[in-house]
Amino acid sequence: MSTTTTLVFGASGQLGQCLQHVAQERTLTSLVFLPEEQANILNAEALQAVFQQYQPAYVINCAAYTAVDKAEDEVEIARKVNRDGAENLARLCGKHNATLIHISTDFVFAGTGNTPLLETDEAAPISVYGLTKLEGEQVIPALTSQYFILRTSWLYSEYAGNFVKTMLKFGREREEMKVIWDQVGTPTYAIDLAGCILTIIEQQNQQYGIYHYSNEGLTSWYDFAVAIFELSGLPTRTLPIRTAEYPTKATRPAFSVMDKSKAKAQLGVAIPHWRESLKVCLSRLEA
Prior knowledge:
By secondary structure, this protein is α/β, with parallel strands linked by helices. The protein has 9 helices and 12 strands. InterPro entries: dTDP_dehydrorham_reduct, NAD(P)-bd_dom_sf, RmlD-like-bd.
């Protein structure tokens, strides 16, 4: 790999921190991590200055509005970050001949089917978050041809706030937990996703387009919680409940398992099963 510069926006978030971790493991020194305070993707003028300074070959957009329920009330804020921010980066990538790697979500789908979702399946979001992420996907191809859009799901890691860390906290505090069993998807260890992103860059892959990336397998939130407690040795009783028993402002996809065949074939990545990756994450959290 050449010493071309990669800019990482949203570097202080969960995936940004995982990218820093994996880059250190792989001794990659060409990544520049830019937290929001230093490089806000909504400030086009400041972004222009950053691009001029670094002349990046790659840009990774980890910045996103991900508060799914709050987005129902904060539509314009979510749209600014998820659509306008992606537009700003894509425009500059087009001007500077840089490749954009943009992170999207399984929430672009309605989740009403029961077979793994392909990249070519119709996107029909049922939440503001999903809609604004889809709008972000849609603005990119008009501004640059050099892009990878990676849709992922149920992201967790030892960094930032996420379902695994929340379950561990509650599991230590409570004897019993009620968790939804009728939403099915695939957890994704953000360290694995970070590895996929850096492999694209290391291999200078040019098979641009939309890809699905999560861990292998499928599970419900209930079974995910059971696995977390079991592998952590926590005696917490886990009770399955329906989505209707735990109402939220935003509607979630009932089935959002994504087919990863394209990513495995064209990105050359091996994808671990979600339970194996969960073991790795838990071992690091306990270390």
